[in-house]
Amino acid sequence: MALDALIGMDPESAWPILQRIGTESGSAELRARSVWLLNQVDTDEAFDLLVAMARSDPDPEVRGQALFWLGQQGGSLDMLGEIALNDPDEELRAQALFGIAQIESEEANEFLLQIARSDAPMEVRSNAIFLVGAARR
C-alpha cells in the first residue's frame, strides 16, 4: 500500500524512498513494483538505478521490468545489447532485444541488424530479425 501511495507523490520527492527500495529491499515484488515509479523520475540517478537493477537484480522479473522501461526511455543500447547477447536467461535476452526495438532511432535499428548478422545464439538472431521486421510495419 505504501508503494501505491508513492504513485500520487511528485516523482522527485519519492526518489529517496524509491532508491532505498531498489537497493535495499529484500522483497522482489516490492522492487518490481518500484521499477515503474523509478521510470517516472527524470534524473540521472534514477536512470542509473534502473540500469543497475536491469544488470544485477537477483530476480528475473525485476530485471525484465527494468529492461522494458529502459527501452521505453531510449535507454543504453550498449547495456541492452550486452544483456541481449550475454545473459544466460533466454527470457531476459528477449526482453533486452525488445527494449532495443522500442528505441526509435536508426542507431537502434542498426544495432538489431548487427545482432541479427552476428554469431549470437540462433534464438537471439531470429528474435532480432523479427523485431527489425516488426518495426518496418
- Mean pLDDT over the residues: 84
CATH fold assignment: Leucine-rich Repeat Variant
Question: Please, how many helices?
Answer: 9
CATH superfamily: Leucine-rich Repeat Variant
Assembly type: single chain
Largest sheet: none
Number of strands: 0
Distance between the termini: 41 Å
CATH class: Mainly Alpha
Question: What is the CATH architecture annotation?
Answer: Alpha Horseshoe
- Radius of gyration (Å): 15 Å
What global shape is seen?
A: elongated
Share of residues in strands: under 5%
Low-confidence runs: none
Plain-language structure description:
It is a single chain. This protein has 137 residues and is mainly α. The chain has a single domain, classed as Leucine-rich Repeat Variant (Alpha Horseshoe). It has helices spanning 2-7, 11-24, 28-40, 44-56, 60-73, 77-86, 90-102, 106-117, 122-135. The model has no long low-confidence stretch (mean pLDDT 84).
Short structural description:
This protein has 137 residues and is mostly helical.
What descriptive keywords fit this protein?
single chain; 137 residues; mainly alpha; Leucine-rich Repeat Variant
Layout of strands and helices, then pairs:
Layout: H1 2-7, H2 11-24, H3 28-40, H4 44-56, H5 60-73, H6 77-86, H7 90-102, H8 106-117, H9 122-135
Helix pairs in contact: 2-3, 2-4, 3-5, 4-5, 5-7, 6-7, 7-8, 7-9, 8-9
